[in-house]
Amino acid sequence: MYMWQFVKYTLATIVGMFLFLLVSIILLVGVGSAMSSSDSVYEVKENSILKLDLNRPMAENASDEDNPFAEIPNPFFSSTEKVGLIQIISALERARVDDKIKGIYLDISFPMAGYAQLSEIRDALEKFKKSGKFVYAYSNSYSEKAYYLASVANQVYLNPSGLLDFNGISVQYMFYKKAFDKLEIEPLVFRVGTYKSAVEPFIREDMSPENKEQTLSFIRSINHVVFNKISLSKGLSIPKLDRIADSLQAMNPQKAEKLGMLKLGYWDQFESLLKKSIKIGDKEKLSLVKLTDYLHAKNPIPEVEGTKKIAILVAEGEIVGTRGGEGSIGSDDFVKELRKLRDNSSVKAIVLRIDSPGGSSLASDIMWREILLAKKVKPVIASMSNYAASGGYYMAMGADVIVAQPTTITGSIGIFAQWLNLDNFFKNKLGITQDHVSTHEHSHFLNSAGQLTDFEKSIIQNMVNKGYESFTTKAAEGRKMSVEKLKSLAGGRVWTGEQAQKNGLVDELGGLDKAIAIAAQKSKLKDGDYKVAVYPKAKSFFDTLLESATSSESMELRWAQSNIPWAKSIFELDRIKKREGFLAMMPYMMELD
After folding, report:
1. Residue 485 in domain
2. Does residue 525 belong to any structural domain of this protein?
3. Which residues participate directly in catalysis (predicted)?
């Protein structure tokens, strides 16, 4: 273990020193220009079009600043800034009533977002269209997710030589058992529930029948929602869309056009369409407004007077323990923010915006308790994004009302524990041996990466069983159903928001706007009576960059995302190691294709 820690932290220190020097130079060069432009108001020209470029990683809440170094390639930090879902929704609402914005150009090929987030944007675009303004989409290629969002547009344009990926939704998992066998690494797994399959990659070479059953169930549910919305937008029946997907007809652009899915055209032809739509000549220049610029423009919606607020508290990422980092949730950080909102008399209700597959069971329980205390003072509404599963559901079940998108992945109510026995790996593969001296028979219990006795295993299994009983009992109380009924929905089983609403795990279907409306109704606030404020505040580009240079978690993430093969391998193994212990986590952070 000590050798592993030495290798990991030596590499992290080297990266940290390099990043510190790099960031120091960048800060000196950029901080002046950033400060001078941060308070400037962007002037939107008459007859403008809002351009939404969604080919970037999507977060729930992101800075509205541009990354001034986005074009600089480097292996140590991401030069691609994230786009914030909350910022997109805000911009669309503003643009809907802004006389200077005549329509939207949707630039989307391969969105790095979940179906729930895309559904939220899609709903906002539908609302935007009701203002009488247009939404047009253009791309050289569309992924399945991209077409789902683009299909809401009045016109969907594809390059004649491009590609439309339309063949239904699938999920692919990776399994490490054979690799562990070769490396002589023994996973020690403890779980409760037939469907608690998060441990399967370590103990199986394929999916269990139960895992296949639940996975097929929830991706069919998501696919039904997606196809239904495309059907309504494009006037194509769901059976016809099924035939198109099964026969891969849409991969031929000309066939896709004949089927009525889109129109073919080159950029200049699409540009002419935009100009015609806003009634300017072909030789005149389009005024395309970027999202970040528009968010710095004067808000056309009058500001609400007074101090009454509905607070949105964003909880995004894996639940890692007491202190969070980039893309993770720490219970200490969350509790600190929640207590401030609970004690703030101007905050009349709290909306928990959850996008998490779960993680540490202890941290989940700590946050659940604080949510219960907060809702004794003011209404607390849970709004689920892509994921609110296992530990993510643990947080939500403490709220007064739970709102989810039909495509949200939730449930996974269960607990498991895992450790890796690395004794033989270190001894036989690396030539490293360990020894210890103890005062009592089990003094070394859980302090080593070694084997456990049957007695020690029974202790852990009993703790997992107790954790499961606690989770299900609290969930049953929160959902006002019997423990027996709750357990029939638990066992680690994953549900979509649509399924969860039917079985009682979720109250309402909808997005963040619906959760805010419920919060307003619960706190007896009328439209125009309150402001909406988002917490914690999104970090600026330079704050994020500085954190990357000083945070070990951020450094490890950058190495894992780099193109250095051995670095990826080391930090992927470290990620697995960090998931040791007692966890309330869904089966993998899955990517739906």
Report:
1. no
2. no
3. 196 (proton donor/acceptor), 390 (nucleophile)
3-state SS track over 33-76: HHHHHHCCCECCCCCEEEEEECCCEEECCCCCCCCCCCCCCCCC
Number of domains the chain contains: 1
Q: Which tens digit of pLDDT belongs to each residue from 195-254?
A: 878 889 989 999 999 999 999 999 999 999 999 999 999 999 999 999 999 999 999 999
DSSP labels, 189-239:
EEE-STT-GGGHHHH-SS--HHHHHHHHHHHHHHHHHHHHHHHHHHT--HH
Q: What are phi and psi of 163, to 5 degrees?
A: -140, 135
The pTM (predicted TM-score) of the whole model is 0.87
C-alpha to C-alpha distance for 510 and 272, rounded to whole angstroms: 36
User: In CATH, what number is assigned to the domain containing residue 154?
Assistant: 3.90.226.10
Q: How many residues can be counted in the chain?
A: 593
Angle at alpha carbon of residue 486, lines to 481 and 487, rounded to 5°: 150
Whether residue 81 contacts residue 56, with contact meaning beta carbons closer than 8 Å, is answered with yes
Q: Which residues are catalytic?
A: 196, 390
Report the DSSP pairing between strands 494-496 and 409-411: antiparallel
The answer to whether position 533 is within a domain reads: no
Contacts of 302 (CB under 8 A, 6+ apart): none
